[in-house]
Design a protein that fits this description.
With 152 residues, the chain is α+β, with helices and mostly antiparallel strands. The chain contains 3 helices and 8 strands; from the N terminus they run H-E-H-H-E-E-E-E-E-E-E. An 8-stranded antiparallel β-barrel has the order 1-2-3-4-5-6-7-8.
Length: 152
């Protein structure tokens, strides 16, 4: 029954489409939290870390549900507009599809630009050591370019 209702809902919804490209991704927050302060020490490593976090974000047929994929992380977001261009963002993060954290924040959309700020809760879990006992919170700032905000 739930599958039938979901199928009926998505039959009239928009298809998957590119919502934006995050040139600076909010998650996992490690670029600004760890690499940014190390910029003077190693420009090469900083450049590699920057490329790892560039993220295309795809809008799904479910209103407000987005999927982002970069070399550093894969995320599922739920974004809800609150007032004009302001909105709230929440989501879960994975690394190589291993669940490792969550994101909670807000965003502003103006035209084709999106600015997001969030708190990222990250575990120390890896596929080699799937242990979710160690956690840290990192700030996230995201800058994205994509579809105009009038669509919201």
């Amino acid at each position: 029954m739930i599958g039938l209702l979901l199928a009926l809902h998505t039959a009239h919804a928009e298809p998957f489409r590119l919502d934006r490209i995050d040139v600076l991704s909010e998650d996992p927050g490690t670029f600004l939290g760890e690499v940014g302060p190390g910029l003077p020490r190693s420009v090469t490593i900083t450049g590699i870390r920057f490329v790892e976090q560039v993220k295309p974000v795809i809008a799904t047929p479910v209103d407000g549900l987005l999927v982002g994929v970069s070399l550093a992380t894969q995320s599922v977001y739920y974004e809800r507009p609150v007032y004009k261009g302001l909105g709230l963002t929440t989501g879960i993060q994975t690394r190589m599809l291993l669940p490792r954290g969550a994101l909670l924040g807000g965003h502003v959309r103006a035209g084709r630009f999106r600015l997001g700020m969030s708190a990222n809760l990250l575990s120390g879990a890896t596929w080699a050591r799937p242990d979710w006992t160690t956690w840290r919170v990192l700030p996230g700032v995201g800058i994205g370019i994509g579809r105009p905000s009038e669509a919201w």
